Amino acid sequence: MTGSIAAVGAGLAAIGAGLGIGRIGGSAMDGIARQPEAASKIQTAMLIAAAFVEAVALFAVVVALV
Question: Mind telling me which residue stretches traverse the membrane in this protein (predicted)?
């Protein structure tokens, strides 16, 4: 029973990460479309935010499996 609950937790973490990164990417594309001259700043901020989302998702998966 514990293994299946851990799998559900890991799956929820993966879904959350996918949604978060998708939202970050979509918002970044919106911002770049509105202000193409700020593309490099937006891209840098997007990559940093995506890295933070991935780190939190990885941490959640580890906690769920432990």
Answer: 44-65
How far apart are the C-alpha atoms of 3 and 49, rounded to whole Å? 31
CB 17 within 8 A of CB 57: yes
| CA-to-CA separations, 42 to 5, 20, 34, 57, in angstroms, rounded | 38, 16, 11, 22
Contact between 9 and 64 (Cβ < 8 Å): yes
pLDDT tens, position by position, 10-35: 888 889 999 999 999 999 999 999 99
Domain ranges of the chain: 3-65
pTM of the full predicted structure?
Answer: 0.80
